[in-house]
Amino acid sequence: MQHIPPAPTAKAPKERFTGEVYLSPLHTGQAPSRLVAALVHFTPGARTNWHSHPLGQTLHCTSGTGLVVSRDGTVIHLRPGDTVHTPPGEEHWHGATEDSMMCHLALVEHDNGHSATWHEPVTDPDYETAHTKTKETR
Fold first, then answer.
1. pTM above 0.85?
2. List of domains in the chain
C-alpha cells in the first residue's frame, strides 16, 4: 500500500480545451498498470476539444452539470453521481454546461504510452446545439 499526496492542480493546455479548465492529477499507474486518473474542473462553458481514447474513457461527475457528446450527435447530460463510458476510438467531447461549473473524475488506460488522440476544438454553434439535444440520464 502507498499513500500518494495530492499533486498540484494545473491549468489545462489551451490547445486541447476551450475556456478555463483545471487538472488535478490523482494517479499514473506503473507497469503493469495502465490506469491514469485525474479530477478535471470545468468553468461554465468550458470544454475539451474533440478527442478519442485507444482503450476508452470513463467519466464520473462529482459536482455541477455537464455534457458528453459523441460525433454521431448523442448528447448525455451529466449530473453528480452519473458515470459515462466512451468506448475505444469513439470521438467525443465533454465539459460544463453554459451556466454551471462541472467536475468529473476521468479514468483512462495508456496503450503503449498513448492515452488520447486530440482533434479540433468544438465550435460555439456545436456547443450551443448540444444544449438543445441533451439525453436525460435519469
1. yes
2. 16-132 (2.60.120.10)
